[in-house]
Write a structure and sequence with these properties.
The complex is a heterodimer.
Chain A lengths: L3 H4 L7 H28 L1 H4 L5 E7 L8 E7 L12 E10 L2 E6 L10 E3 L4 E3 L6 E3 L4 E3 L8 E2 L1 E4 L2 E6 L10
Antiparallel strand pairs in A: 1-11, 2-3, 3-4, 4-9, 5-6, 6-7, 7-8, 10-11
Chain B lengths: L3 H15 L1 H9 L2 E3 L9 H20 L9 H10 L4 H28 L8 H24 L3 H14 L6 H9 L6 H33 L16 H12 E3 H27 L24 H9 L2 H25 L11 H23 L8 H4 L12 H12 L28 H10 L13 H12 L23
Antiparallel strand pairs in B: 1-2
Helix pairs in contact in B: 3-5, 3-11, 4-5, 5-6, 5-11, 6-9, 6-13, 7-8, 12-14, 16-18, 17-18
The chains are: A alpha+beta, B mainly alpha.
Chain lengths: 173, 490
């Protein structure tokens, strides 16, 4: 917009020059005002990241001692249209008494659902063949660590876990 | 004849106002080198035709598909079972996507082997690489819209890969999923990507790609010894086109048109014979007996992730793959001159062959996935009769242990069972009794240790059975010199 100034002798700001500058500035402001909410909106899931929430898995008595059972709970951060994906599963191992281990079903390798085999007392992953012992530690295959383990608490005879987020290497439960 | 005159008049009226004919005709009839009117040059236009087919069928599917996590699955079932031609359109969209990836790959191999990426067409190649990435993005996001178990766990795999990025891993996962976990907002996100964002970019890139082809001319047929030189190339190309060129339309376009028809017909035939893909099972993550598998474009990646040594995975995913893309993008920048003919470029030919073979082999392994345990082997497979005939009670007890402890999830017997571990037929020719006991109790070599899960009596029976597993004409394995036998546990 000021290209002419290099060649022409300095002149007082003209009406045309002013309008051009004003037009550019207005467009820039408008672009910024549109851009800020768009970027904020796109990054919303990161900014307003809901951490974890405590969820009950039911009475302690429903988990026999020495056994591993599948438990399910509703995602605490669900929305009305989540449908079947609102449900989350976890493997609950009652070691004995009030001592538990609650594992995410997601394999620590790449998140596939591990399955519990009561007889061989192993968790096996159907995707890339990872296997874990009953205490969640890595037994074989590509997983870089043991199963992700939820924090748990016993409150008034109920088993509570802290969950709601997809367990990954970056954000283990 | 009576109809043609008024049609001409209408066309003339439109042309007088739009001038589109005058604008497009020179582009359609521009001269191209004679030898490029070849079957080798049809893959680009065939890919574009398939893209148009995807847009047409995609719009149709979007008329019915509900991009909401609670209803997407039902809307797909409605398309499959009730909507008129719904299943067929889904099938065309699926087979069209397969064909698009395939034909695009052929196009890429052809332009690579014909040196088309060299001066002055570097940018055409670079734009093309972005188009390939967009197409793979369409393939991945499209697989998610199927909103079945494969989609759910495929997202889990995608998120787990993103999570491996240092520092920003968790941020990336939340950005990708649009929520703390795979759910309703994730599907909406991928719908917007698949239907608006990526196709929009792809259409724009296609326009640019075609513009570049028109502006710089179709790559001439490479001749050994005709070296690309920045000083003389354009002049020589122009001279050749003017001396011995043919109009693109209709001379070269005839073969393109036939190829377009053939690929579309092939897609229609596949769609009619094989039908649509899935949806495979409600995306309910509490159904843990899912065995997720990706569509074929990602099978080789799926296999790679099973076969890489674990410690190399993160590096290969986060450094190796982006590096491979950067290499593809940078190819015309460091090899923009020189020989174009494949006859004088052995490294190019061999590396193309190698890449195709590696990807195809990995994809085939991905189909077989021998590393995955056979999850129902313990209940679904019977012990071969010959292995239980004339056995002692202890050995029969051992056969039961093999069955009950799900050994065959990973080890096959009589050709049935998992391929994660070695087949057990003939195991007694490889391992002595002591080695068998050690292997069962302590595991090792990718086998879990069963020391805590088996009673001494079970181990004893199991090993007694395993010792019988050898062909009668082969001797049992012998302990190496000086090895001390383990005390018998019975």
């Amino acid at each position: 917009m000021c290209g002419n100034h290099d060649r022409l002798p300095p002149s007082p700001p003209s009406r045309r020059g002013f309008l051009f500058t004003l037009g550019t500035a207005l467009s820039a402001v408008a672009a910024m005002l549109v851009g800020i909410p768009i970027i904020g909106y796109l990054f919303g899931p990161v900014r307003g990241r809901a951490g974890q929430a405590w969820i009950t898995l039911g009475g302690v008595a429903s988990f026999p001692e020495g056994q591993t059972r599948l438990a399910t709970y509703d995602n605490p951060f669900r929305v009305a249209w989540d449908g079947p994906t609102a449900k989350i599963a976890c493997w609950v191992r009652r070691v004995g008494g009030e001592q538990f281990q609650v594992f995410a079903v997601n394999c620590a390798h790449l998140g596939c659902p591990v399955r519990w085999f009561q007889e061989s007392r192993l968790f096996m992953c159907p995707c890339h063949g990872g296997a874990y012992y009953e205490d969640g530690s890595r037994a074989s295959g590509p997983p870089p660590r043991g199963l992700f383990e939820y924090d748990y608490e016993i409150r008034q005879g109920q088993l509570w876990v802290r969950g709601g987020q997809l367990p990954t290497l970056a954000g283990p439960v | 004849m009576r109809l043609i005159t008024p049609l001409r008049a209408v066309a003339g009226w439109l042309e007088a106002r739009t001038g589109l004919g005058a604008a497009v005709t020179p582009a359609a009839t521009h001269p191209v080198p004679r030898r490029t009117a070849s079957w080798w040059y049809v893959f680009g236009s065939a890919t574009m035709t398939l893209f148009a087919l995807q847009i047409a069928t995609g719009i149709c599917l979007a008329l019915v598909y509900v991009p909401a996590a609670d209803q997407a699955y039902q809307s797909l079932q409605y398309l499959n079972e009730q909507a008129a031609f719904g299943a067929y359109l889904r099938a065309i969209h699926f087979w069209g996507s397969n064909a698009m990836v395939l034909v695009m790959t052929l196009h890429m191999l052809q332009v690579f082997l014909f040196g088309a990426y060299k001066y002055p067409r570097e940018l055409t190649w670079i734009v093309g690489v972005f188009m390939l990435l967009c197409t793979l993005g369409m393939a991945f996001t499209g697989q998610i819209l199927r909103w079945d178990q494969d989609a759910y766990w495929g997202l889990g795999i995608g998120a787990s890969i993103a999570a491996r990025a240092p520092v920003v891993g968790s941020t990336l996962v939340h950005l990708l999923l649009g929520a703390p976990i795979i759910a309703g907002r994730t599907l909406s996100r991928f719908f917007a990507l698949h239907v608006f964002v990526v196709p929009g970019i792809l259409i724009a890139l296609t326009g640019l790609h075609v513009w570049l082809v028109l502006r710089l001319g179709v790559n001439e047929w490479p001749m050994p010894g005709r070296v690309v030189d920045r000083e003389t190339y354009r002049e020589r190309y122009e001279a050749e086109v003017h001396r011995d060129g043919v109009p693109f339309f209709p001379v070269a376009a005839r073969k393109d048109m036939i190829a377009m028809g053939v690929v579309i017909l092939a897609v229609l035939v596949c769609a009619a014979i094989f039908g649509p893909n899935g949806p495979h099972g409600v995306p309910d993550p509490t159904i843990t007996d899912a065995s997720p598998r990706p569509d074929f474009y990602f099978l080789s990646l799926f296999a790679l992730l099973a076969l890489l040594p674990p410690w190399t995975e993160t590096v290969i995913l986060l450094v190796g793959m982006p590096l491979a893309i950067v290499l593809l993008l940078a190819l015309p920048l460091f090899a923009s001159t020189g020989e174009k003919s494949w006859r004088r470029r052995p490294v190019a030919v061999l590396s193309s062959l190698l890449i195709v073979l590696v990807v195809a082999t990995f994809a085939a392994l991905g189909v077989m996935s021998p590393w995955s345990p056979v999850m129902d082997a313990g209940t679904a497979l019977a012990t071969p009769v010959t292995y239980v005939q004339d056995r002692s009670p202890l050995e029969l007890q051992g056969a039961l242990v093999v069955q009950n402890k799900q050994c065959r999830n990973c080890h096959s017997l009589g050709g049935e069972g998992g391929a994660r571990g070695p087949a057990l037929d003939g195991v007694a020719t490889r391992l002595t009794r002591d080695q068998l006991i050690r292997q069962v109790l302590q595991g090792g070599g990718n086998m879990p240790a069963y020391g805590k899960n088996l009673t001494p009596a079970e181990v004893n029976a199991l090993v007694a059975f395993l010792e019988t597993l050898r062909p009668s004409n082969q001797p049992p394995a012998r302990a190496p010199e000086g090895a001390r036998p383990v005390a018998r546990s019975d």
